[in-house]
Amino acid sequence: MNAPPAAIASPDAGPLSIHAQGLTRIYTVGSVQVTGIDGIDLAVGPGQLVVLKGDSGSGKSTLLSLLAGLDRLSSGRLTVAGRDLNHCREAELTDFRRKSVGMIFQAFNLLPTLTVLENVCLPALLAGRAFREVRSRAEELLDWLGMGDRLDHQPRQLSGGEMQRCAIARALINDPAIVLADEPTGNLDSGNARKVMALLSDLNRQFDRTVVIATHSDLADGYATMVLRLQDGRVAP
Questions:
Q1: Helix or strand (DSSP H, E) at 160
Q2: What is the number of domains present in the chain?
Q3: Is 202 inside a domain boundary?
Q4: Angle, helix 131-144 to helix 160-172, in steps of 10 degrees
Q5: pLDDT (tens digit, 9 = 90+) per residue, 96-115?
């Protein structure tokens, strides 16, 4: 891997990157109410690497969706990267997602008709940034991730590990304070899985990024500053 780009600067996320009190999310399915997250209290300082563990249905993905502003809490309080997500309007949540949080998914979520470079540039262009600046930043990130010779390739031409590195560059393009990863190694072989976890650790330790990883894997445990085990939507003792 090449030298890290100067583009990754230390963020200013306030005294706490994540602060939740009584965080609850209840879904209505027909006539039944299903509790996804049940009264979680959480305090995560800047620069921590948090690993969320738990069986399927324990609430890991629901919690990440709430932290990313992709879902609305039912009750409680939630502040992420200085934003009070309780009271944000939709336009404010969109701005928050574009500028403050980078998301990495198990399925990569790359647009198949765009090149690697275009996929990485897209979030920054949607945030209204100038194309020349965005392209330069994307090229720096992709070069850092060993993808400098894949700029014009489409996702179908990449390996799983390369697609995830592209997705990581896309998550970093707007220089977010917080990186959220939902099963980021779920579709990777063991070698690429270890590389991705090491990369997320580098982001956390070298650049003071707050990183939250939801995973069934034990690969991230050795890098974690905090491990939370969820069960039935609650933090297990």
A1: helix 160-172
A2: 1
A3: yes
A4: 140
A5: 998 899 999 989 999 999 99
